[in-house]
Every structure is written in structure tokens, then in C-alpha cells.
Amino acid sequence: MRLAVVTAGLSVPSSSRLLADRLATATAERTGAEVTVVELRELAGSIAHNLTAHFPDPRLAAVIDEVTGADGLIAVTPVFSASYSGLFKSFFDVLEPDALTGKPVLMGATGGTPRHSLVLEHAMRPLFSYLRAVTVPTGVYAASQDWGTAGDGGGRELHARVERAAGELAALMTGPAGRAVAPVTEPEEERVADAEEPLVPFAQQLAQLGIEPPPGHREG
Length: 220
What we know:
single chain, 9 helices, 7 strands, alpha/beta
């Protein structure tokens, strides 16, 4: 069993990496999974290249295979401008649309203030729902004050959330419900129908409405 961990922290040390490690340890203790951690800041150039060239370099391709082939995924991002970081979103943008279908995903985020904790629900959960992943009910957000004081192993409330979320991810990875989750492909007739659906150029649609297309769209 394999567990992939993706963290988008930019600094060293990184609170996002610290949260990702705690979630991974708690999950691995329950599942015995082999853990692979991906630091996206080390792949920033490869991700940008993929976005413009539309194919991954060998290093990014290996990471994509590791993430998409894992039995479970932990994804942690720092909060920038009240949402996930651009690097975090860019990585998931380069995956094939159905690459995470049915995969159990535990979401985590870090920020300087508790006011951004809803980023888990208004940004991250919709992203993974769009990718057809199975998100665990408990996401874990850690603000600066949640880490507690040195020597006590972090705040007790954060520890409790980590343990609860890890338990939910482990249940999805190992339980009957998790094994029942499988990628769903569209019926052949629906895919054929979609393929035969004619694509009407935008300029032609405007012309049918009697609207003069802008200069940049005259050729469709």
C-alpha cells in the first residue's frame, strides 16, 4: 500500500511540510503504507514547463505516476490570498482530468490566522470534487497558534484533528468502502455521442445571434 503526500510549502522549514508529515505519520501508523513526500517547490520549473509545453519532463512524470498510482493522497497547501497557492493549483492542473478519480484524499492547509480555515471547504474540497477524488470528511487547517509550545508536541486540538483525519483516510484506504471506490468511465454510447457532437465556433454562434464578432474572433 502506498501513500503520496504533496506539500506546496515554499520556505524551509515549512509549516505545510510539518503538517503534511504529521498527517502522513498518523495515517501510516494505521495502514502500514509506504510514504512518498513530494515538495512542489522543487518542481516549480517542471510544472511551469508542463503548463506551456503540455508534457511533463521525466522528473515531473515520475512524480505524477507516484501520486496517481498511490492508494491515498495527502495534499497540503499554504494559504495565499484566501485560497490555495498558485503552485499547488498548477500541479493539479497538469494532471489528467480523471487521474484522481476515486482516490481518497486528505486535505490540509496552513496560514498565519484561523480566519482562513474555510479555505478547505470553499477552495480545496471543490477542486478535488471536480477531479472526482474522494475527500475525507475532516480537513486539517493549522494556524500559527495551533502549533502549541515547544516540547508539548504541538497543540492538543491540532493533534486531535490530525488523528481524526488520519483515521478517516486510513478507513477509506483499507476498508470495504475504500476498496469499492473505483474510477468510473462513461458508457461507450455516451462517449461516442460526445465525440459526434459538432463543435460550433464562437464566431459562428455570435453570427447566428446577429452579433458582429470582435476582430480577434472573426476566423472562428
